[in-house]
Amino acid sequence: MTITTPRDDTASIATPASLGKGWAIAGTTAGLASIVSIVGSAMSGAAYDKSVAGDAVGITEKLSEQTASILLMHTGAMFSAVLLLVFAPGLRRYLQARVPVSSLLPDVAAGGLLLVVVAQLMGTALTTEFAFGLADTDQVVPETAVFFGHWIGTVPWLWVGAGVAALALGIAGRRHGAVPGWLVWTSLVLGGLTTLFGVSPLQYMAGMTGPIWLTAAALGLLKRA
Prior knowledge:
Keywords: Membrane, Transmembrane, Transmembrane helix. This is DUF4386 domain-containing protein. The chain crosses the membrane at residues 23-48, 68-87, 108-128, 148-172, 179-198, 204-222. The chain is mostly helical. The protein has helices at residues 22-42, 56-64, 67-96, 105-123, 127-133, 142-152, 160-176, 181-199, 206-224. Helix 2 (56-64) crosses helix 6 and helix 7 runs parallel beside helix 9. The longest helix has 30 residues, at 67-96.
């Protein structure tokens, strides 16, 4: 009869293996693209312009003048979303090689970034129809254009998932030395702020801190890749 000794997963840490730099480059580019997206969204604020507040026709006219900004938001968000599909599993594998096998931190970090992907995908879901439809405002129902203006001013800013990912990375660095000290504190501070913003009524503020963390973290990890 063979007796096997149970594996102690809590103490097991895989030997770090090189993942190359592609995933970290993708993350850095995603961070920069997401900043572009947020800038584009902020420049498409006809729905929040006090000079036309409550005037659906006036808001529609202003939106028709902001199609370049709308397309900038769309392009930045979609580039970021696609690139995060590379960075998220790369970050997961990077952490798996540096934390105990039983740790949830790698999965939490990747899962948080995938939430950002969903938010960016949904945030751009209506842009093609309206960006080109606004070329002829007579063919657009003003109230639907107002809704669209609010949509692109809110949904792409839902970056709470990045806050969770940042906290996971910061904790992995704090407990297991997975990342250097500066990135530990950058992740904990920006991750904490992003998460607090995201779960509060100020949830769209997460769109300001999340992309900054993503860019800084990806750059830091690129240097270690």
